[in-house]
């Protein structure tokens, strides 16, 4: 048993029982070991959850970084969509990720920020837009995953439509991006200046 095996099995357990029911006792039983042996790899449950959050983000973290010739707007959209898809891959993926610190991918974040700034997005606006889009995405997925166990709108009044989570995500993301686009255009000197 190694650290990777423990994390992989913990993620499988998460998918089966949900975040509230994941415990080191249950994980140890599943691995066929005594609970204290898990502490050889993870000193606390919080450390285990952090490793699980990092591993769960692997599909997004390994996505290609932007190239200088990429359109920043198209890249921003795809980056946010990739983040959403990754959170949705795991049961309670957004809850697992919320509050985690992106320690393993700081260089990637810096590269993404540098790409936006080089593309003409003011640095502070790029930082705030990435933060807003990230938090918006986590919030959308939290709501979507919470709604997964509810009936499909059968209890809603006739005048309230059933929420299409993907459509709502795309609309909100477009609003964030439109705002960033306007701020970027406003900060770019006109050609006659």
Description:
The longest helix is centred in the C-terminal third of the chain and has 25 residues, at 123-147. Helix 1 (3-17) packs across helix 4. This protein folds into two domains: 3-56, Homeodomain-like (Arc Repressor Mutant, subunit A, Orthogonal Bundle); 58-187, Tetracycline Repressor, domain 2 (Orthogonal Bundle). The chain is mainly α and 193 residues long. The protein has ten helices and no strands. It starts with a helix and ends in a 6-residue tail after the last helix.
The CATH topology of the largest domain comes to Tetracycline Repressor, domain 2
Give the SSE string.
Answer: HHHHHHHHHH
Range of strand content: under 5%
CATH architecture of the largest domain: Orthogonal Bundle
Tell me the name of the CATH class of the largest domain.
Mainly Alpha
In short:
By secondary structure, this protein is mainly alpha-helical. It contains ten helices and no strands.
Keywords for this entry:
Arc Repressor Mutant, subunit A; 10 helices; mainly alpha; 193 residues
Layout: helices, strands, pairs:
Blueprint: H1 3-17, H2 24-31, H3 35-38, H4 45-56, H5 58-61, H6 72-88, H7 93-97, H8 106-118, H9 123-147, H10 165-187
